[in-house]
Write a structure and sequence with these properties.
Elements: H1 2-15, H2 19-34
Helix pairs in contact: 1-2
GO cellular component, one term: dynein complex
Pfam families: Dynein_light
Organism: Acrobeloides nanus
């Protein structure tokens, strides 16, 4: 899970220049993959 978090964060930061958009991307990826309600700040 930690490795996936790092890779997802790298993809998000490459794709989005606004941090809140990157956080939303990470949250949605984790919600889909692991279920539940994840939060990314």
């Amino acid at each position: 899970m930690e490795k996936n978090a790092i890779m997802t964060a790298i993809r998000a930061l490459k794709q989005f220049s606004v941090e809140k958009n990157a956080a939303r991307y990470i949250k949605e990826e984790f919600d889909q993959k692991y279920g539940g309600q994840w939060h990314c700040v």
